[in-house]
Amino acid sequence: MISAIILAAGKSKRMGQPKMLLPWGETTVLQQVIATYQRAGVEDIIVVTGGAHRQVEEIVNKSGAHHNFNKEYSNGEMLSSIQCGLASMATQAQAALIGLGDQPQVREGTVRLICETFRSRRSKLVVPSFQMRRGHPWLIERSLWDDLLEMKQPQSPRDFLNKYVGKIQYVEVDNPSILADLDTPEDYQKSRP
Question: How far is it, in rounded angstroms, from Cα 105 to Cα 128?
Answer without folding.
Answer: 14
